[in-house]
Amino acid sequence: MEFQEVSKHYSEIKALDKITFGLKKGDFVSLVGPSGAGKSTVIKLLIREELPSSGKIIVAGRDIARFNQRTLSLYRRKIGVVFQDYKLLPHKTVYENIAFALEVCDATNDEITERVPKILNLVGLADRAQSYPKELSGGERQRAAIARALIHSPKILIADEPTGNLDPANAKEVIDLLMRINRTGALVLLATHNAQMVNALQRRVIKVERGKIQTDAEKGKYL
């Protein structure tokens, strides 16, 4: 996956200014920078919620801006996204929240029955399957959100400030889970402003500031 001289403008504001970087299968990359630096814009462009003002985003050799609706739908199924505020459906159980992600893609009951328990086991929530979001701790809610993001076996997992609402112990659990998912071969892109967490990972760090890439380093530090 490559961003090639990608810019994004909102009227007179340059959210991104000709940024270029590449990610590959198996990478674990932290995207860091202060609020307003451009991290969220990178994510919106990558999931094609928005289109670049200029430049190209190439995934598997194709410009994602040129995807038709069917291709875009298939592409998005290969990207899992986890947000800071979980975005769980409050009136559905953990099991139902995850199953719903399959139902909207016309999965059969047999597929749902087979896949959901496996994902719940992976994230350590098998015993909370029938609980509602309000009955979960913050860390459990985030693990449920990760489970939902994983249900389509994505090749890319994007975590946008996934530990922002969590205490240090729960934050560590979530990061450990992301690392475990990464070891299965998924590309993980972690957007965060948590310097201590990023520095402890000792993985690649891309720092964005004022819409430009300031540094891109293997085993980088967030200073």
TrEMBL record:
<comment type="similarity">
    <text>Belongs to the ABC transporter superfamily.</text>
</comment>
<dbReference type="Pfam" id="PF00005">
    <property type="entry name" value="ABC_tran"/>
</dbReference>
<keyword id="KW-1003">Cell membrane</keyword>
<keyword id="KW-0547">Nucleotide-binding</keyword>
<keyword id="KW-0472">Membrane</keyword>
<dbReference type="GO" id="GO:0005524">
    <property type="term" value="F:ATP binding"/>
</dbReference>
<dbReference type="InterPro" id="IPR005286">
    <property type="entry name" value="Cell_div_FtsE"/>
</dbReference>
<keyword id="KW-0067">ATP-binding</keyword>
<dbReference type="InterPro" id="IPR003593">
    <property type="entry name" value="AAA+_ATPase"/>
</dbReference>
<keyword id="KW-0131">Cell cycle</keyword>
<dbReference type="InterPro" id="IPR017871">
    <property type="entry name" value="ABC_transporter-like_CS"/>
</dbReference>
<dbReference type="GO" id="GO:0016887">
    <property type="term" value="F:ATP hydrolysis activity"/>
</dbReference>
<keyword id="KW-0132">Cell division</keyword>
<comment type="function">
    <text>Part of the ABC transporter FtsEX involved in cellular division.</text>
</comment>
<dbReference type="InterPro" id="IPR015854">
    <property type="entry name" value="ABC_transpr_LolD-like"/>
</dbReference>
<dbReference type="GO" id="GO:0051301">
    <property type="term" value="P:cell division"/>
</dbReference>
<dbReference type="GO" id="GO:0005886">
    <property type="term" value="C:plasma membrane"/>
</dbReference>
<dbReference type="InterPro" id="IPR003439">
    <property type="entry name" value="ABC_transporter-like_ATP-bd"/>
</dbReference>
<comment type="subunit">
    <text>Homodimer. Forms a membrane-associated complex with FtsX.</text>
</comment>
<protein>
    <recommendedName>
        <fullName>Cell division ATP-binding protein FtsE</fullName>
    </recommendedName>
</protein>
<dbReference type="InterPro" id="IPR027417">
    <property type="entry name" value="P-loop_NTPase"/>
</dbReference>
<feature type="domain" description="ABC transporter">
    <location>
        <begin position="1"/>
        <end position="223"/>
    </location>
</feature>
<dbReference type="GO" id="GO:0022857">
    <property type="term" value="F:transmembrane transporter activity"/>
</dbReference>
